Amino acid sequence: MSASAPTQKMVVGLGNPGAKYDRTRHNVGFEVLNRLSQQYFAPAPRTKFEGQYTSITVGPTNLILVWPLTYMNNSGRCVRATADFYKIDLEHELLVVCDDLSLPTGKLRIRLKGSGGGQKGLNDILRVAGNQNVPRLRIGIDRPPPRWDVSDYVLGRFSSDETPVISQAVQAAADAVRDWCIHDIAYCMNQVN
């Protein structure tokens, strides 16, 4: 009995490039990929298709990790170019990891499809995909306090109270990506949602 061929999948963490955006609420997608890179001793990322990428082996899966460097609102360009190059099916072999204002801080939610929910990076990926059937793992960052500008809030850093909660959520999200590689999206939804 021969072993089955390894599968290939791609996970995209959304965020903005540059030190000034490091560890901001909008960059939790980048943080999840950073955590996976560390845990699986990924090779140093290379730059191509307006993003950085590397790959790791998780169970039977060769997993391509992609950090778009286009800034959040244009993430779709990097995702489309990289997915086309690696022949990734956006509905079955891609998982987008991003922040979500409508979920409490640290809460995770996995969905197979749906709107971008106001997350501009996810919206751009859905636009480029031509449909809403793109799996996503959303990490709650909560709503801004009254009278706060949404842009200022998402580009701000977590408070000292929120930091341990987000650190746990980033680890849980990395574990969910691992489960997606070893099992499937339905298994992940049962574990996370």
Q: Give the radius of gyration.
A: 16 Å
Strand segment tally: 7
What percentage of the residues does DSSP assign to strands (E)?
A: 15-25%
**Domain count:** 1
* CATH homologous superfamily placement: Peptidyl-tRNA hydrolase
Q: Order of helices and strands, N to C?
A: EHEEEHEEHEHHH
CATH topology: Rossmann fold
Uncertain runs are none
Task: Kindly provide the name of the CATH class.
Answer: Alpha Beta
Biggest sheet overview: 7 strands, mixed
Helix content: 25-40%
Annotated CATH architecture: 3-Layer(aba) Sandwich
What is the averaged pLDDT score?
Answer: 95
Structural class: alpha/beta
Q: Mind explaining what this structure looks like?
A:
The chain has a single domain (7-192), classed as 3-Layer(aba) Sandwich (Rossmann fold), CATH 3.40.50. Helix 1 packs across helix 5 (162-182) and helix 2 (75-86) crosses helix 3. It is an alpha/beta fold and 193 residues long. A hairpin with a 2-residue loop joins strand 2 and strand 3 (51-58). It has six helices and seven strands.
